[in-house]
UniProtKB/TrEMBL annotation:
Enzyme Commission number(s) from the entry: 2.1.1.72
Keyword check for Transferase: yes
Protein name per the record: Type I restriction-modification system subunit M
The keyword Transferase appears for this protein: yes
Organism: Roseateles hydrophilus
Principal EC category: transferase
Source taxon at top rank: Bacteria
Keywords, ordered alphabetically: Methyltransferase, Transferase
């Protein structure tokens, strides 16, 4: 079939966003995001299947058994009664929710190695959509929205797989920005993901992990960099996510971006890490990246002392702040030679004392901390507080720590600030140069950091103070006298005008 190239990304994005109108005003976005994203996945799988079926029929029309055999090797096998079109044909009958759930379970069973448990936390038959009549109406409208010509997602029409993956990312980003903190927890702003991926410089053959992967966007940024720089798909993506529905989003997101070489586990990374090398040790990675939940209160303090992986041998983080629990987990999963990591943290991680101070000191003394980057405020969905990115390496170039104050470089937005390409490049250039830059970057020695009691608060190292220009009092006095004389001249001139006009 001939590929149609005039379908734009913006057209598809607009169409899938308009499909959300079915829910607006009736269901909270933090709930309906799962239904819309899952329906996009179902529609895409159905359209690919239909497209390939039509192609095979054109080639082998008189051999239905051959067509059936060819379809068995599809990326996703689609039972005939589980396709989007079968559901759309029955949309006016009662039971839309139950029918969609059955279709999803049938697809899962037919693709069990790829989709095991992916749909178990997503039920279209849920009473969250209202009573039976309302639920049936909402789902009928949703099926009709996705049946519109704009959302014909056949590869012969839309071309590359990334078009669909990008639409999925577009939806996730918009849900995060419109749904407040709850939805923002699983999404890292794309500019921050790009910065972290580029800091890590992923290469062909790298094993890349995000232990709090959310919807998987940060992992896929790293994978994309490998493809763009080498043209190779020889890399592997690993992740773990604690929230079941978000884990399902990550799995679907990976498949929609063509990232089949992934392993995304569902579970609590601190209490129950699933990415293991055998039963007794954590798997190690070339790159570890994460945007963990900020200062998580219930992170697993109770079992930390007896952790069988010895992740907390440098100290147990505070009971109600889990930031260092995630950092220590990530440190333990870096490969001895090539291991490098980037993690987003709240600024408190840089200077809080007690247990956190002791852990921080040990990480610095072990020469693991490489770079501290202060980011602007209001970058992250659901919080206005500024964050920092910490870069750790197992094989550092020197014993120093580079501090970068990037907090003033951004484009201001109404709700969210944005890092521009120039802002990202300035950070990356400073990291590459590893030299002091006035009012922006400072390379601190271990002795200097020790003098500051291992406090990493960026203003202690990067002086952003700008001296005001010296005031010449005699010059100010001369200007004052000139202004007074000018005022006298103007008043005399005004009096002359008034007298001429007969007012005086």
């Amino acid at each position: 079939m001939t590929e149609i190239t005039n379908v734009s990304q913006d057209d598809i994005n607009a169409a899938v966003w308009n499909a959300c109108d079915t829910f607006r005003g009736t269901v909270d976005p933090s709930i309906y995001k799962d239904f819309v994203l899952t329906m996009l996945f179902l529609k895409y799988v159905s359209d690919v299947w239909q497209d390939h079926y039509d192609g095979y029929k054109q080639q082998y029309g008189d051999h239905p058994e051959l067509i059936a055999e060819m379809l068995k090797s599809e990326r996703f096998v689609l039972p005939s009664d589980a396709s989007f079109y079968a559901l759309h044909n029955q949309r006016h009958s009662p039971g839309n929710g139950e029918r969609i759930d059955k279709a999803l379970h049938a697809i899962e069973e037919a693709n069990i190695t790829k989709l095991r448990d992916v749909f178990q936390d997503i039920s279209f038959n849920s009473n969250k959509l209202g009573d039976e009549q309302q639920k049936n109406d909402i789902l009928r409208h949703l099926l009709e929205d996705f049946a519109k010509p704009e959302l014909d997602l056949r590869p012969s029409r839309v071309g590359q797989l990334d078009v669909i993956g990008n639409a999925y990312e577009f939806l996730i980003k918009n849900f995060a920005s419109t749904s407040g903190k709850k939805a923002g927890e699983f999404y890292t702003p794309p500019e921050v993901s790009t910065l972290m991926a580029r800091l890590m410089a992923p290469k062909e053959g790298d094993e890349i992990c995000d232990p709090t992967c959310g919807s998987g966007s940060l992992l896929m940024k790293c994978g994309r960099l490998v493809r763009e720089s080498t043209g190779s798909r020889k890399y592997a993506l690993y992740g773990q996510e604690a929230i079941g529905s978000t884990w399902a989003l990550a799995k679907m997101n990976m498949f929609l971006h063509g990232e089949d070489n992934h392993r995304i586990e569902w579970g609590d990374t601190i209490r129950n890490p699933k990415l293991l090398d055998g039963a007794a040790s954590l798997k190690h990675f070339d790159i570890v990246v994460a945007n963990p939940p900020f200062s998580l209160e219930k992170w697993g303090f109770e079992g930390a002392d007896a952790d069988k992986f010895s992740r907390f041998r440098r100290g147990v983080p505070p009971r109600t702040k889990g930031d260092y629990a995630f950092i220590l987990h990530m440190i333990e999963t870096m490969k001895p030679g090539t291991g490098r990591m980037a993690v987003v943290v709240p600024h408190g991680v840089l200077f809080r004392g007690a247990a956190e101070g002791r852990i921080r000191q040990k990480l610095i003394e072990e020469n693991l901390l490489d770079v501290v980057i202060g980011l602007p405020e209001k970058l992250f969905y659901g919080t206005g507080i500024p964050a920092a990115v910490l870069v750790f390496r197992k094989n550092k170039a020197d014993e120093k720590v580079l501090f970068i104050d990037a907090s003033r470089d951004f484009e201001a937005g109404k709700n969210q600030n944005v890092l521009r390409e120039a802002d990202l490049q300035r950070i990356l250039d400073a990291v590459a140069a590893r030299q002091p830059v006035a009012r922006y970057a400072y390379l601190a020695t271990p002795a200097e950091i020790a003098e500051n009691d291992f406090n990493l608060n960026i203003p202690r190292y990067v002086d952003t103070f700008e001296e005001e220009a010296t005031i010449d009092l005699m010059e100010v006095r001369r200007e004052r006298e000139q202004l007074k004389a000018e005022l006298v001249r103007l008043e005399l001139q005004m009096d002359a005008y008034l007298k001429e006009l007969g007012y005086v």
